[in-house]
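#onboarding

Welcome to the new folks! Below is a worked example of what a typical request in this channel looks like: someone posts a single protein sequence, and someone else replies with the predicted structure as tokens. Don't worry about understanding the tokens yet, we'll cover that in week two.

Example request:
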Amino acid sequence: VRPMAPQAGAALEHRRMLVPLDQGAFSRSILQTAEMLARALKLSIVLCHFVKPVGPYLNAEQAPPGIASEIEALIAVASSDLERQALPLSNAGISVEIVVCMGDPLKEIVRLAERCKAGVIAMATRGSASLSRVMGSTAHGVLRSTRVPCLLVRPDAEQPAQQLESVAVTV
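Example response:
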């Protein structure tokens, strides 16, 4: 966790948490922690997924018809997946928005956090025993590229997420 600058105060100014996900189970391991944090701090959640561009095309409108339909299909799959992930959060009374963007995840996470005025970015991160590789490259890049406080959670194979009882965050 990286806290806000001291002048920002003790409360989150923006009541939104940005939670980047891919379609793998690893990135979804942050969802239980995000839910607990959202409940405790009364935050809404923005779930997002970043689709890699197909060739030089950043959207279907720029692409020729065959590639445009491929881009639309990728976006549809990502949207459907995010909707499935959002449902339990919504059922728990948390306001959830889903966003699918095209582009480099690192750059787009930073841009989206600013655009949606996120008060915190919560991500699962891969880790290792080596201190120089404690975070995955995307998480490390986001942490270094944004002023938004970041909560990076490394799921522990020996301690399932269900055993997580509380999360302390300085914000």
